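Q: Could you write out the predicted structure for this multi-component system? I'm mainly interested in how the pieces pack against one another.
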Amino acid sequence: MNTAFSEEDLAFQQEVQAFIKQKYTPELAARAANPKTFKDAQIEWQKILFEQGWIAPNWPAEYGGTGWTPTQSYIFDNERAMAGISDVVPFGLKMVGPVIYTFGNDEQKERFLPAILSSDDWWCQGYSEPGAGSDLAALQTKAVLDGDDYIVNGAKIWTTYAQHADWIFCLVRTDSSGKRQSGISFLLIDMKTPGIEVRPIHTIDNYHSLNEVIFKDVRVPVANRIGEQDAGWTYAKALLAHERVSIAEVANSKRNLAEVKKLAQQEVNGGQTLYSDTAFRSRLAETEIELMALEYTELRVLASVSRGETPGPESSLLKIKGTEIQQAIQELRMQIAGYYCGVLGQDDIGHEFGSAARQAYMYGRAASIYGGSNEVQRNVIARAVLRV
Amino acid sequence: MNTAFSEEDLAFQQEVQAFIKQKYTPELAARAANPKTFKDAQIEWQKILFEQGWIAPNWPAEYGGTGWTPTQSYIFDNERAMAGISDVVPFGLKMVGPVIYTFGNDEQKERFLPAILSSDDWWCQGYSEPGAGSDLAALQTKAVLDGDDYIVNGAKIWTTYAQHADWIFCLVRTDSSGKRQSGISFLLIDMKTPGIEVRPIHTIDNYHSLNEVIFKDVRVPVANRIGEQDAGWTYAKALLAHERVSIAEVANSKRNLAEVKKLAQQEVNGGQTLYSDTAFRSRLAETEIELMALEYTELRVLASVSRGETPGPESSLLKIKGTEIQQAIQELRMQIAGYYCGVLGQDDIGHEFGSAARQAYMYGRAASIYGGSNEVQRNVIARAVLRV
Amino acid sequence: MNFDYSEEQVMLRDSVQRFVQSQYEFETRRSIAESETAMSAENWAQFAELGWLSIPFDEQYGGFGGDIQDIAAVMEEMGKGLVIEPFFANVILFGGLLQNSGNDALKEKYIPQIIDGSLQGAYAFVERQSRYQSADVLTSANKQGDNYVLNGTKTVVFNGANADVAVVSARTSGGQSDEDGISLLLVDLSSDGVSRQNYRLMDGQLVANIEFKDVSVSADNLLGAEGQGYVLMKAAELQGSVALAAEALGIAGKLNELTLDYTKTREQFGTTISTFQVLQHRMVDTFMEYELLKSMLFRALCSWADGDDEFELDVRALKAKLARSGKLIGDEAIQIHGGMGMTDEMSVGHYVKRLMTINAIFGDGDYNQQQFVQLQDSAA
Amino acid sequence: MNFDYSEEQVMLRDSVQRFVQSQYEFETRRSIAESETAMSAENWAQFAELGWLSIPFDEQYGGFGGDIQDIAAVMEEMGKGLVIEPFFANVILFGGLLQNSGNDALKEKYIPQIIDGSLQGAYAFVERQSRYQSADVLTSANKQGDNYVLNGTKTVVFNGANADVAVVSARTSGGQSDEDGISLLLVDLSSDGVSRQNYRLMDGQLVANIEFKDVSVSADNLLGAEGQGYVLMKAAELQGSVALAAEALGIAGKLNELTLDYTKTREQFGTTISTFQVLQHRMVDTFMEYELLKSMLFRALCSWADGDDEFELDVRALKAKLARSGKLIGDEAIQIHGGMGMTDEMSVGHYVKRLMTINAIFGDGDYNQQQFVQLQDSAA
């Protein structure tokens, strides 16, 4: 049992560090941090990764993946997060991409994968529906066959960055006669198709990332259906476990915790820093210890995935614990912000981070709700592990 | 809104203090603290209270109660606990007594109440059964009418101090045809009746207070049945809410917390007392604050009871929170004991309180299980308050 | 032993309740919060008419002569309605300081204006570096003749944007964190040398950073004796904490109610989610936290009424308890509402954000628990 | 990256597993625990035969040459079986100190006796006043010629009742709590001036308070250099903590398993209690805590294998995590078992009591978390 980096690993780490230092310029970082310029900056960075061949560590090499060992993936992700760089937008690269190369036909692979890798297409996810929530299989959006097209009617909700998207991948109901999980199909839909309306959802973080997407007689070619009609649930489910592994966001939490430490060292109350305040420090240490345990849990799952095992209910554990830790760190940052924890949209007030802390905290409430709420994840573990 | 003591209250407080000082001698205290002499010392003290007329604050004056205001009851209980005196053994005075004076006939009142008040009869409670647990209504002990007697067969479990008891009050099944809650009768059974066997249950605290009580063709006169046949569930239920109010044990927890503070001031680690160790102290303060909130919750319930209202689901809250706080205080004491927290039955080792801390902690696990487990209490609140 | 509000208090409470129910629906509140001043002048005039603005003031100035229990009765209902008008900042903080100031001339001049609704006041006591230590004061007031010259910047001044005048804490002597040497001055915010930067907090209120540059303030505007302002500040902190706790209690009850109602209508997996035992038990826990918070508020209100030595200890405990209960109740409210809890459209998030704002005023849970511990040590 | 035990480690682990399953049923364990010595001499001889007693020792003394990972593999299984024989006290603590002592003569003399099962040793390091600060040593050793004269009392000496010899920490110079000036001496417990008071702990083990009154010990019995014993003590504390954590992991897994099984058979309100969603979610939480504890153990084992600077930090974090996970898992095990969990007859309470005992050895959760924080500060 060991996790020591080999010489190759150490060399790889240096290569990653050098690459980031060279390519992720302060100027780019500044644009990525600004909501107004975020999308362009993010695409610019993803294209840099694409040119380097590092855009899709989780894909098989034959489709453009890196062929990295789990240790290399771990190193890359760690260095990325520690440099304060956001992960790639997941909808194309981590969600629909794997579905397409696993279940799509050759034509679909040729048509969609290159633009996902090059970040020329921006994807969004159409799973949840108003009224369905964590009960995905209750979905009502209907697709009716009409010649070579489906005609889609219905609505999707909580669609992150739909306002930026070129494509949406959707679960739609093509048959209502059998069990709820059957009769669902997996469609790729061009967002420019007539009949699609994107309505912003204003959220408690006072920011716009979520949307409702309304479909009114939207024609989607049958050629845009993944796999068999009525079998879409299977494809989506295969993806969910993968999604949950990355949802733990250990590397990002490490970075955020390091930032929180730095802020606590600067914030003074009654002549001593918050970092040397025992109550705050013990809360911080408790969170850090949980994160240390989570990090090795993620590594254990990665090690088993690298042996070809499919991530099982452990991925639900990573999701639950990962989001709990993210929220704990957001709370620590809010605590440091003190009187400034509620500042709205202005970063020149008090501690400059107050508004950002608030936004991250409020939006962070969603982490335990979306992607299968933590309650649903506990049900999953209860069934799969406890077999109750 | 106020809780200030009136002059009468202050005078009463002094009277109680003087009484305790005079009657609860150090010699008596020492015997009460020793498991071997506990029973006799406890009875001796209860007889002193009886002579003073203070044995049954919760009873109506006509049956021998004190007629105290809620504030006086609060003062008495507080002074008693702060003097380190155990509350009266509840089975006669707090449990079966109220059932007898509320639902019993005149003959039963005359026959049983005096010996309960004078502590000449020691009672125990026969509710739980092996296999029934918190699902009281699932009880199986049968009573079959045979002339003027019932013939009782079955077993009761978790019977505290059955080894000392003269009488047991039991729920028994007299009819199995209807709903589970109906067909239950409430019997008073002389422990000397042939066919009763008391088997000790050894518990994780390495102490003997619990028993199984086996009934084999035990003849119980019909005259010992409270109220109507098959209506026993009603009588027992009316009692449960009262039982839960006193189960909060706020006064005892205040006393125990004060003791824990004193111990923490004596215990040194690395040159500073545990009391000045911030982590320990903040745990202590957190518990104390919860207890302060619980104390006023109890007072609110007492105030409403004194207006003639029956304690409702709040009593479940008192039970849940009261036992959680008791357990938190037990845990603090174990933490102070350090290496000596596991000492078994010897009080001359290390901190002299190690063995007692262990016993209280381990036995204390039962508080959230017995008297309707805390899970069952939450179900009660969910139904009664949330109406879900 | 008596835990009932008096008849008068019940009348006050009912009056706020009626207002909230009939005139302060959530959408009305939203449009007020989003307006330029983040308050409604009409509502404020109505508050004056209803007598709410007179509560803490002596009868000789036209006040109601109320105490902290009267205020609590009102604040709980304001919490339920998420009333955004600056009752707390203007009447309780600014008005309370004035009422306790011992400066009869100032009282005579300003209290009637508060009561009739024509004056907006604020209490400026937070500085960039002070965090929760209100004795950490860098703003200086130097005596020059009959005036003080005020220099410094106050931050997160509640009602600071709308205020005509403010009570400002300033150092007239002593070191940066000394309790001695702080003086309270009532400053006209239209004076030369005053500038403001207005901004909003997540609960929608409009606050300000206020900079004072060589602002001349008459020595007549001193609240309390020179250098002895801290005792007034401390009283404002304690009474303000109780008022906020009452508001928080109202919010907590409302959050529990909204959440419970939601679970009874929301269907998932073919049934209303109120039938899920885990959600039931978690809602039992939030119900219990609400009751415990209420008990703690009553404890502080009683020890105030009893003239108890432990009032400060009880307030610290109350504020610490508020932090824990509020966190649990707020988190569960959003979590159980699921995706809907994340939307600005639902009221639940707005209640949570006000609760979080309250948590940070006069110190968070950790801070108040530490004060609790220090008080015990200094009493021992 | 590799989180698998080696083939050799798997063989060791399986060997303990087989022993526990075939020869160490709970009732057998109970009668051993209740016997006069609280251990079985036959079992000990079998441990020797199976080679377990040789694990941490150099091959030149007949040892297996194992490391902390080998020990962890064994301890986890011992935890599952609640093995009460003094493997930890004798082989890991006493043996480990000897192995690291650098005193070849002592090693040559005693290690073979440990390995063949003929010697019982102990490590006496706790004093009445020391709590978790093992550098707080009042026991004194004064050099007189070629001997030390030992005076003082050690308490809660694991295996102290059965031990023939003990490694004793004693002060040869310095102040009461100085790390410098502590010397480790191997003492024959049949020496003049040694007296013991034996007693049991809640996990059933027999321990002792040992008093030394002018006990003469040869200077040849020094482990490490005079006054430099603390470095060996520290290593014993860290490695011992990892071994205990592995045992605790075995116990935690067993508790979860017993509890889950119980809920599947226990009926209440007409159904097995495993169908109650609240219990399911709480068992999911204990499952997660078990997995996180395992990850933390693996983290410490890997940083040991990697020769990582962070080993001590990882061990402190592990012991702190153990305290929290163990508390949750133990509490839930008893609570979900209900009344049956309170009985001495069921094994669940015994597992919990061992887990609680482990929690207090080398410092509880608070203590280890504070060490964690201090280490970070001293590294910064």
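A: Regarding packing and overall arrangement: The interface with chain A takes residues 1-6, 69, 260, 263-264, 274-275, 277, 280-281, 283-285, 287-288, 291-293, 295-296, 298-299, 301-303, 305-308, 314, 317, 320-321, 369-370, 372-373, 376 of chain D (CB under 8 Å).
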